[in-house]
Amino acid sequence: MVHCMVFFTIWFVTCAGAVATECDPKECMDVTLLQNSAPRLITKSKVQTTVAAEVDFIIGTGVPKTATSSLREALNILGRHAAHGATMFSQAFDTAWDAALHGDNVPAIKKFLREGYDATAGDSPWCFMYEDLMRMKPNYKVVMSVHPRGPDAWVDSSDTWNAFHVGGFFPPANDPNTPPFFAGRKITDFPPERLNEHLYASKLDCFINETHNESWGDRCKQGYLAHYDKVRRAVPKDRLLEFNASDGWAPLCSFLNLPVPDMPFPDVNDRTNGHPGPGVL
User: What is the pLDDT of residue 271?
Assistant: First the structure.
């Protein structure tokens, strides 16, 4: 049995079967974890650098509004550096987003791999790039997050989250959920949002810039279900976890063969209307 020290910000605990260092998660991508068969308890608020040795990349295939922000935080706690839809907005005018709009996902994937990401938490656009990621990072596992209350609740969440797309403009400056740089501007001025609208339409048959009525909801629901069926067919069963965030840490840590943190599962889901949220730039 290998013994080592897992260092934390203030103090540390000794664990078996792990290798860790005290550093920023972005700088610790080569740290490995020698797993035991069952999840182990970590008695600190954050595990900084425990990375599953046999898995190079974790691919999230959950569509937006399926607790992907919470999953991103959870993966980061477990030692990963996870990309999310919000990642695009830190470099909103990068040419990779327009390349993806025209069907070439490779520049976007290469971009975030260069930046040290070793996971995606789902969300658009990453949840729709899983087949390219499976080819480019064959040593993978897939976490497919679902809406905790089912497909009808997902449609309701999508309706609220994307309602501002119908008007074609970001909310005004007096909306507390809209950064000043975006306020009142045309949505399609921003490549990430052009890409989001395109992917919702082409991958889910859910045109978020159209009137949100009953017919719209029915199409979106069917698109949601079809996406998950497609992922199930594409991913080997032993590499796929269908994950409901309301189940907490246990299934995720068991699937990844990682310790179970002694802390609540993250709940960072943004329930406000519209995106990107404050602080993305």
Answer: 55
| Cis preceding-peptide flag for 276 (omega within 30 of 0) | yes
Range list of H helices, 115-257: 130-136, 151-162, 164-167, 191-204, 214-234, 249-256
pLDDT, residue 171, reads: 78
Q: What single string gives the DSSP state of each residue in 63-77?
A: PSSSSHHHHHHHHHH
Per the DSSP assignment, residues forming a β-bridge with 59 are 142
CA distance to 47, 245, 258, per residue, from 268 (Å) = 18, 11, 21
User: Parallel, antiparallel, or unpaired: how do β-strands 119-120 and 82-83 relate?
Assistant: parallel
Residue 173 pLDDT grade (very low, low, confident, very high; cuts 50, 70, 90): confident
Task: Tell me what pLDDT residue 169 has.
Answer: 84
Cβ atoms of 178 and 185 closer than 8 Å: no
Residue range 56-69, pLDDT digits in tens: 999 999 999 999 99
Which residues are within 8 A (CB) of 83 and not within 5 positions of it... i.e. 6 or more apart? 72, 112, 117, 119, 120, 121, 126
Residue (of 242, 266, 236, 268) closest to 255 by Cα position: 242
Which of 280, 256, 249, 190 lies closest to 57 in space, CA to CA?
256
Q: Give the span between the Cα atoms of 65 and 71, in whole angstroms.
A: 11
Q: How many angstroms separate the Cα of 276 from the Cα of each of 74, 112, 156, 197?
A: 20, 19, 19, 14
The answer to whether 85 touches 123, Cβ cutoff 8 Å, is yes
Task: Give the span between the Cα atoms of 278 and 281, in whole angstroms.
Answer: 8
DSSP state of 258: -
